[in-house]
Structure formats: structure tokens, C-alpha cells
Batch of 2 targets.
Target 1
Amino acid sequence: MAIIEEVSTPFDDQRPGTSGLRKTVEQFSQPRYLENFIQAIFDTCTELQGGTLVLGGDGRYYSETAIDTILRMAAANGVGRVLVGREGLFSTPAVSATIRRRGAAGGILLTASHNPGGPEGDFGVKYNVANGGPAPEQVTEAIFARSREITGYRIVQAFAAVDLAREGAAEVDGMPVEVIDPVADYRALMAELFDFDALRALFRSGTFTMVFDAMHAVTGPYAKALLEEELGAPAGTVINGEPRPDFAGGHPDPNPIHARDLMERMYRHDAPDFGAASDGDGDRNMIVGRHFFVNPSDSLAVIADHLDTIPGYRGRVTGVARSMPTSRAVVRVAEARGYDHYETPTGWKFFGNLLDAGRVQLCGEESFGTSSDHVREKDGLWAVLAWLSILAGRRESVEAVVRAHWTAYGRDLYSRHDYEGLTKDQGERLMANLRDKLSGLRGTATRPGPRVSDADEFAYTDPVDGHTTSGQGFRLWFDNGARAVLRLSGTGTSGATLRAYLEKWQGDTLKHNDDVQELLADVAEAAREVAEVEAFTGRREPSLVV
Ligand code: G6P
Ligand code: ZN
């Protein structure tokens, strides 16, 4: 064993954000930067000593270097064995599935999710624990604390001569390494949950076509295996299906702006019946019908309404959860069906305890994330299979399914307005100002809009472990029934983005076709006024409307 103890000094910026440590490739390439953080993980997460570690990611630039370093550090830190995805690839939900199915102690995911990749792009490292989910805040805080007192790291000298292109057994200085098919466990899990025969029949019917945009990110191999090989969708159903280290220069975020190829196809005169896309690491999803975009909050509500028709969930749905900025559409379904419902802070990790405790089976977020208790991450392809199941059962168009939902429950008009590229200082001062005036907001009139009926700063006490998380964004309720939420994004790598989430319930079916932005204009203006957006940011209008 040639273990080397390298001397190091701490970096002070290694606090994991909403979803792991996410920085530019340039920052990660600083000498000792990655090593320090990995050592902090190994020092903190002692379950890895002698345990199995799952390793892989979305294949973005810098992954190969990072995998080499992590394998050598794992060997030097007493990790029992490492399962690494072929070519270093592993979607985030598939890591979660593999950790759970193989009883691994944890996983290290190399991804910056939907952020652009390449030498000028972003990189990220995320630690997942034995339940398959992101490390809870207590653990990420402990990793951060450790990173600030690091004095050195352990690594073995030998180059980790593991051929990632070939499945099979290898070793790094005595530590067993297995290069595995990153799709196999995940594919087996999906087959247990969904009625694949019914989905095959849908594709065979000859009246149904779909397109899945993998955005040159990790879901290409997964989507081809499941949709084309397993379910019989014709070759070419999956577009942009080859993972690339820079996502072919694209921004692998499945929303109407960045998934341009998909949107263009779905709005053509010969558009397919169903379209979907996933992000860099495969945990997000966007659902589109023919000439019809499905808002993620509506998608969650529709899935909730049909979940017990899917074999893996029949007769066992008791609760659902949504992140706080997600619309209340799913709450209406829960109330009608007698399911419990929970409102958590933004970030998938907050669903973990609820899922582990069996309190909820379905979770979702406005940020294009949906999943169930089959894993402890959000899962893009799972959402696609859930929608395919709904369409196979109802044999109606996506648009018809959503409109029927609105007719039954009313429509929660919804939009997110982002003010991007602010300085950290602008963002923080705006939030501090809201905090200062919070207690006096109730009853405030906005001109010419609605009156604020209530306001708070969201805090969440986890009902399972009692841990309280505060400062999670401001909620404003208005006397016309609308709600606005204001928070700063937790996933950027520089500056700040202010997000304003706007929603209003519309029971009148005749108004379900009206322009959402027009219907929400008064809420948008009221939120801007209350938060003094222009005074603090110099912006009159959002830079991105989703
Ligand atoms: C990541 C997390 C999600 C979260 C989202 C919010 O994707 O996995 O759980 O909803 O970030 O991003 P934001 O930029 O709004 O903090
Ligand atoms: Zn992601």
C-alpha cells in the first residue's frame, strides 16, 4: 500500500448548497480543492469505511479526473469497495436505486445537474447516504465544518488504472472496484413498478407517437433502453441521446426555453402526441403534449390523481408532499382523495424522511422534479413512465387529461418570474428588507392590486426527526386568493437569482384558456411592490418567465 498523506489547507467556500457542492470547473481545478472536499466526506461519513460506495455522474467535463482521484482516495481511506458506472455515467435516480438495491453505504455523484458543462461550465460533487437520498443537512453541515479544518488528505499513489469502458472487476491498490452497467438496476426497478405490457400496447397501437429529448446528457442510454428497447418505441424516439462532456454546448435544463429542440417539435403541425425531456443528471422532467405545455405543478397533481392506477402503487398511497413554492394543485387532489399532504422547503433532501417513514409515496416540485418512494431522488424517466401509464390507461391526449383535471379541481394558474444575474448583495438586501417589514405586511394594500392578507417567512420542522430549517423564503397571501413566494435560488455558482412564484386559483372553466401571464399580472406586480424589487435590484421586469 502506497498511501500518501498530502498536506493541505482549508478552502472556506465548501458549504454544500441545495444539491451538493457546485462550483465552476475552474474552481474545482484548483490544486487540493476536490481532494479537500472528498477527504471531508470520508472523514465525516465513517459508514464508508469497509462499506460499498457507488460512484458516477452525468459524464460532464472533469468527471474522469475526479473519478480517478476519488478512487485513489477511497482506497487510501479504507472504503470497502466501489461500484462505478460504465464510462463514469450514472443518472442521479439510478445511483439512488443502486445504493438501495445493493445495500451500499453511500454514493458520490459527480454532477452539476442542469448547469452547463465543459471547461467553462460547472462541476459538482454530491454525497448520498444509505437510503439512497442526498445527505441530510446535519451531514452536509458536518462535511462543511470538516472542510474548514482540513490539514491534509490521503490518497494512494498508483494511478487508478481502471478501464471505465469495460464492465467487470478491477482494483485500486487492493480495494475492489466493479465497473457496472449503470442502467441495469434502474431498468429492473421500473419493470417492477409499471405495467410494461400496457405501455408496449400503447406504442404498438399505431396511434401514439412520442419524442424524448435527452439533451446530450445522461438519460440518453436510459431512455433508449427503456423506451426503445423495452417498450418498443421506434428508433429515433430518443433525440440528442449521446451523452457529451459539454452537453454539445447546450444548457441541459428541461424547460421550454432550454429544451428548444423538443419544444420546436411539439409545436409543429405534425407534432407527436407526447414529448418529454430530462436534465444533465436525469432527475428533472418536462412533460409536453401536442401543442400543449404541462406546468410541473399540474403534472404532479395529475400524477397524484392517477397514482393508484399504477401497479407499484395500487392500494398503498397515503400521502403526498410538495416543496413550498410548488402550486397547491396537488393539495386539492390530496384533499379529495383523503391523502395526507406536506409542504417542505425547496430541495429534494427534505422529502427523504417523509418517504423513509412511509408518510408519503409521491413528491414533487415546481422546478421540474417529480418522484416516488421507489428511490430517494427525483426521477425524470419515472415521471415519463408515469405519464405514459396515464395515457395508456385513458387513451386521451395530454391536453385532454390536463383539461379534465382543471375541470374537476379548478386550475391553479402558475408562473415563476426569475430575476437573474443580481449580485449576492442585492439579493440578500432585498430579503433582509422583507424580513424587517414582515410583521407589518398584513393588510398592506398594493396599487392597484390586491391587499396582503398574510405573510410569513417559511420554516419547516421535519415531523419525523424534529429538525427545524428556517429562512426558506417569504410567502405572501393576498385577499384575492392569490399567493406569491419569494426566495433566492440556492443552486447558482455566482451572484444571485431572485425567484418570484405566482399562483392563483381559477374555478371558472371558461377562463382556463386565458393568458396565464395576464391573469397573474396583478399578483406579479403586487409581489414586486411589496418586495421593492426595483429599488433593490434596479429591475422592472424579470429576466426569465417560466
Ligand atoms: C435542485 C434541487 C431541487 C430544487 C431546485 C431548486 O434542482 O434538486 O430539489 O427544487 O434545485 O433550485 P433553486 O435554484 O431554485 O434553488
Ligand atoms: Zn438534476
Target 2
Amino acid sequence: MEHVLIIVGIAVVVAGGAGAIAVPLVRRRGEGAAGQPGAGSGRAGTGTAERGQARPGAPEAGAQGPGGGIGTLPPAPAGPTAGTAPPEVERPLPSAGRLARLRGRLARSQTALGSALLSLLSSGKFDEDTWDEIEEILITADMGATPARELVDQLRTEVKVAGTRDPAQVRSLLRADLLVQVRPDLDRTLHTAPHGDRPGVVLMVGVNGTGKTTACGKLARVLIGDGGTVLLGAADTFRAAAADQLETWGSRVGATVVRADREGADPASVAFEAVTAGIADGVDTVIVDTAGRLHTKTGLMDELGKIKRVIAKHATVDEVLLVLDATTGQNGLRQARVFAEVVDITGIVLTKLDGTAKGGIVIAVQRELGVPVKLVGLGEGPDDLAPFEPEMFVDALLGD
Ligand code: GDP
């Protein structure tokens, strides 16, 4: 029997532009009785001036799932449930300038690295020991042995050629060399835009505990803040808590969440349903959270491969974002390697950069995978996820 998928949505009444009243709608997919009203999508997101918001109590359409059996939906309540205040739907600020806002957190944890480097460089004593120490500091910051050696060799040559001992000049050479290693040339565009009537699809992958589910919720806020509409798919079916967490994220910003009703349901099926609902709803982007169990490489490959294949029946997977915890160093890099072997990663979300002085991991992981860090997590707050900006990152590293 096809398992039941639950769609939780928020319908919003926009009252004369004076704010929003949210009406919670809970819908079940797969169990709706035939003949119930509505031939629509069952998501918050159609029929009103603003996409992603639905009329309260409006009949909604039922999307067709793989078994053709996503039933129609029970009618939505006509208004807020008596006695319970409807949740306010938040409108996050646009993502532009976020890293600038969060830069203090980056600087706080990274300046140890910057000041150690700068104090060595401003000593004006450029002997073997000094260069060795500089290399060691870079390696300690998780930059990786090869990039650290390259940077030191480069800087050493430049200092020699310039014949300078001026701390300001040496510092600006260091800044330029660090920037080269952070690769400002990489394309960090997040591909989340719809293709005609098909939503952009983002798969979030990574090991449990890295901040993967949180990253899905935060990314939804980024996209909604930038004017898009989002549907979340809770395909981490091994942890009910992850789906609950996504629902909380979704309800705060009025994003529909598609989830299974039981632990252990087929993740690919949830992903399929999420994309199906996303198409029916006309959302811009579907973000799919996946299970983060690093059981066996083959198991992971099968699971992620199947998810990608079923989604491809309907839409294109535009981004596969690997979530890595910046505080886990070599262990994180090992995880990255495994994921890169089983799925084509298009970008990295580096979380918990606020909690480590080891910002060099940005350089190491990009080099390891050959894909750019696109987003960085800088705290536990809902809007503490920012598009990565190399220049600002290097400046924060050097304590500018
Ligand atoms: P998952 O198991 O990978 O889905 O991880 P969760 O999304 O549940 O997050 C695990 C923990 O990491 C939670 O307590 C999050 O609040 C925390 N977390 C996630 N991202 C960040 C971040 O950028 N900075 C900090 N300090 N904590 C984070």
C-alpha cells in the first residue's frame, strides 16, 4: 500500500497590505477520499496575487503521484482555529549583504589565524624559520599542506622580488595570495530558478549533525527573502525529527513541506512527491533534505542515485549541495570525498564557520572536490546562512 505523505502548508490572507494572517492547513496525500472538493495542488501557492500564498479554505488541486493516487484533500479550515493564534508568516530579508552583516562572527573566530600571520610578517625577519612557521599556521588552519606550501612559496618569491619588509606591503601581498587560493574565479551562482513550469530542484546531502536540515530551512529563507517561492521535501525519512524540524522551518515562512508519515519510508518516493507537488504548486524551487547516514558507500550511492533518478522523471536536479561542518577538519574532508564519489556535487555549504578558527577548510575542500563553497553557516539563527564571498572572507581572515 502506498504510504501516506503529508503536506503541511500555510495559507495566508493578505489583509489590505497590513500584514498577514496565517491559517494552518494540514493535508494528507494518498489517503484523500475520491470526490472531495478540489482539483488543485494542495499547496499554499496558487490563485493569489502573491505566489506561495493561498486563499484560506480555497479548494486545492491534487497532484498525481507515481501511483496516480494522491487523493484530493480535506477542505482547509475556513479560518484560524478557535483559541489558537495563527502563526505569523515571516518575511526574511534578502540575502544580499548577509555576509557583511555576519562578518563579525567570521572575524571573531578567524583573527587568531590572521594576527599570527601578520605578526610574523611584520617582524620583517624573513628567514627559513619564519617561512616554516607561516606554513605551519596555514596548515593548522586546515588549509591543507599543498595549498599552504604553494602560498608560502609564492609569497616568499613576491617579497623577495619586491625587496620589501614593509608590513603593509607584505600584508597586501598575503591578502592577494590568500584570495588566489580561495578562488574568486569560481562560479558560485546558486541554480534555483524554475525552468518554465518546472521548479528548480536542490538536493541537500551530507552526514547527520553537519547542519543539513538546518541548511534546508535556512536556504528556504534565503530564497523566500529574495522573492522566490519554495517547497521543502523531507526525504530524510530515517529521522522523524528532521521532518518535524523542516515543518517548523517551513511554517515560519509559509513554505509547504512534503513528508512521509512514518520513519523508514522510501526517500526517493518523498522526493518524487515533493517535486510533483512543487510542479503542481508552481513554486520556484524545491529543496529536498536527504538522509545523512554514512552507512556504506554502495548504500549511499543507491539511495542518492535513486532520488536523483526519480526526480529526473519530472524535473532537473539543478544543485546537489554537500553540507560540511567546518569544525570537523580532516574528518569532514573524508566525508566530502565519499559523497563526491557517489554523487555529482555542485556546491558546498560550509556550516559552523562561526565556531572555528580553521577557516582554511574553505580552501582545502574546494581543492579536494573542485567545486565552490556557495553558502556558509555562521550561527544558529534562522538567517545565519550567507552566500560566500571570497574577498570578504579573506578580509575577515586577516582581521580587516
Ligand atoms: P543535521 O543532522 O545535519 O540535519 O543537522 P541539524 O540541521 O539538525 O543541525 C545540527 C546542529 O548544528 C543544530 O544544533 C544546529 O543549530 C547547528 N548548526 C547548524 N548550522 C550551524 C552554524 O552555521 N553555526 C552553528 N554555530 N551551529 C549550526
